[in-house]
Amino acid sequence: LCFAGDARVRGQTGVLSERRGSYPFIDSRLLNNTTLSGEIGTKKKVKRLLSFQRYFHASRLLRGIVPQASLYLLDEDYLGQARHMLSKVGMWDFDIFLFDRLTNGNSLVTLLCHLFNVHGLIHHFQLDMVTLHRFLVMVQEDYHSQNPYHNAVHAADVTQAMHCYLREPKLANFLTPLDIMLGLLAAAAHDVDHPGVNQPFLIKTNHHLASLYQNVSVLENHHWRSTIGMLRESRLLAHLPKEVTQDIERQLGSLILATDINRQNEFLIRLKSHLDNQDLRLEDAQDRHFMLQIALKCADICNPCRLWDLSKQWSERVCEEFYRQGDLEQKFKLEISPLCNQQKDTIPSIQIGFMTYIVEPLFERWAQFTGDTPLSENMLNHLRRNKAKWRSLLHKQHSSSRSNDHSGQVTGSQEQTLNEE
C-alpha cells in the first residue's frame, strides 16, 4: 500500500485530471494553489506533497529540502512577556494567540520545550535539547500556516489544554513520565500536515492519502505516520531500546487515531460504561492509555470551553476553513459538504450544533471522571455561556433576516448591531 501510494503521487502529472465514473482527482498541489492566502513557494509545495514519505524515513537532504532553523527575532521586552506567560501555562485562560505573537510564531516549539522541562522529561529520558528542538521545529513547520484553523497555533492550544488535563488529580496521581510524554507529543502532532479539508473531500476527489489508508481515518493515519517519520528522522529517541521506541510509536498512533470525530460515539459509550460500572483502574496501563485518549479528544475540541473572546476566534477560524472547502467544491462542481456552505451554514448555527451533539456529551463525562474539579466546572460554565451567546446571535440573525424579507434592506440600527457583533 505504501509504495503503491508513493508511485501514484509520482504518476500524477497534472493538478486536475478527469476520470470516467469518478470525481476529478484533486491533489495537495491544488489545495495549496487555491488557498486564499497567496502562492506558496516551490520548496514548500514539494515538501507538503512528499511529507507523507517521512514514514519511510526519507531524508530531507535527498529530497533537496533543507529544514529552516526557527528564528527568534524578539527583543527582551517580548521575551520577558513570553516567559511571564509560560509561568501561567497551567491556567485555563491562557491566551495562545497572544503567546504566538510574543514568540514570533514559534508558540508550539517554545511551549513544548518548556513543558518537557517542567515535567522532567528531558532528564528522565536523557533527551538532547538540540535534537528535541530540531524535532519540534520539524513538527511546527509541517503544519500549514495558511490554514485558518488546522495550523501550529491550534496544535499549541491543544497541547496547552492537554497539559492542564494531565494535572487533574484523578489522572496525575497515576501518570508515568512515559504517559506524560506521549500525551504532549500526541497533542503537538495530532494534526500535522493537515491539508485544510476533511476526509470526505479527500475520498470523493480520489486523493492519494484516501487510497493509501483505504478511506479509514485517512487524516489521522497521515498525522500519525508523519509524526513517526519525523521522530525517526530527528533521531530524538534513537538512544532508547528498540522495543521502547516501537511501543512509543504504537501508542502515539492509538492516541492520534482517537481524535477521529467519526469514532466519537465509540469512545463515549466506552467511557460511560467505565464510569457507570466504576471499573476504571488507573494503575492499569491500558486504562490510563484510554483516559489519555479521552483527554486528547477533549483537548482537541475544547475551544467552546474557553473564554468567549478566545472561543469566538477559534469558531470563526474553523468556519472559515469549512467555507474555503465549500468554495473549492463549488469551483470544481462537487457536492458541497455539510457545514461548508457559507450561504446556508452560519457560524452560530454550526457552533450550537457542535456544542450540543459533540462537545457537551464529552465534557460532561470528563467532569464526571475528574470529580467536578474547578477546571471541569470552569470549562462547563464557559461552554454554557458561550452556547447562550451563539443562540443570542442566531436569534438576532433570524430577526434581521425576517426584517429584510419585509423591508428589502437592513436598517441603519440593524447594520450597526451586526457590525458591533
Automatic annotation (TrEMBL):
Cofactor: a divalent metal cation
Native species: Mesitornis unicolor (brown roatelo)
GO MF: 3',5'-cyclic-AMP phosphodiesterase activity; metal ion binding
Swiss-Prot/TrEMBL catalytic activity: 3',5'-cyclic AMP + H2O = AMP + H(+)
Entry binding sites for Zn(2+) 1: H154, H190, D191, D300
Record CDD domains: HDc
EC number annotated for this UniProt entry: 3.1.4.-
Protein name per the record: Phosphodiesterase
Cofactor note text: Binds 2 divalent metal cations per subunit. Site 1 may preferentially bind zinc ions, while site 2 has a preference for magnesium and/or manganese ions.
Pfam families: PDEase_I
Chain sites annotated for binding AMP: H150, N151, A152, V153, H154, D191, D300, Q351
UniProt KW Magnesium keyword: no
Residue ranges, annotated region (Disordered): 396-421
Active site (UniProt): H150
UniProt keyword annotations, A-Z: cAMP, Hydrolase, Metal-binding
Matching InterPro entries: HD/PDEase_dom (IPR003607), PDEase (IPR023088), PDEase_catalytic_dom (IPR002073), PDEase_catalytic_dom_sf (IPR036971), PDEase_CS (IPR023174)
